[in-house]
Amino acid sequence: MSTETFLTQEAYDRLAAELEELSTTGREEIAKRIEAAREEGDLKENGGYHAAKDEQGKQEARIRTLQQLLKDAKVGVAPESDGTVQSGTVVTAIVAGGEEVFLLGNREIAANSELDVYSEASPLGEAILGLKEGEKTSYTAPNGREISVEVVKVETYSGQ
Questions:
Q1: Which of 54, 134, 157, 159 has the most neighbouring CB atoms within 10 Å?
Q2: Among candidate residues 70, 71, 73, 68, the one with its CA nearest the CA of residue 5
Q3: Does position 60 have pLDDT exceeding 70, yes or no?
């Protein structure tokens, strides 16, 4: 199931540049490291080889993640808040009795921000998506606990 993800133009450009770097120079560098380690001999006890192969796997996973994210991205300015929780809005909510302020969306949007980010697909995100200021709901946490939520305020994300 693919989900459309809101990204600012800045976040999209930053992620596209990272993808380009990993797909070209990054792949070349890791291939050279693997080849150099291979030439050292016995691969079973070659720590450098195994470390390079492990890094290659992580890099390829990041490339796939970025490709999917960019493919499904809706790029533009954050949606203008109308008091309804939607992807790309900053939400102030009372969660399990404590006030939290967070961005609903992808963590890549707020990479340079102190703002907490919850995915729309998270239990909290799914529970509050579409709610209006003042509305209450609850959701089941991964540990099975029922958690109450009240949406206090919904604001336009300003990039901070």
A1: 157
A2: 73
A3: yes
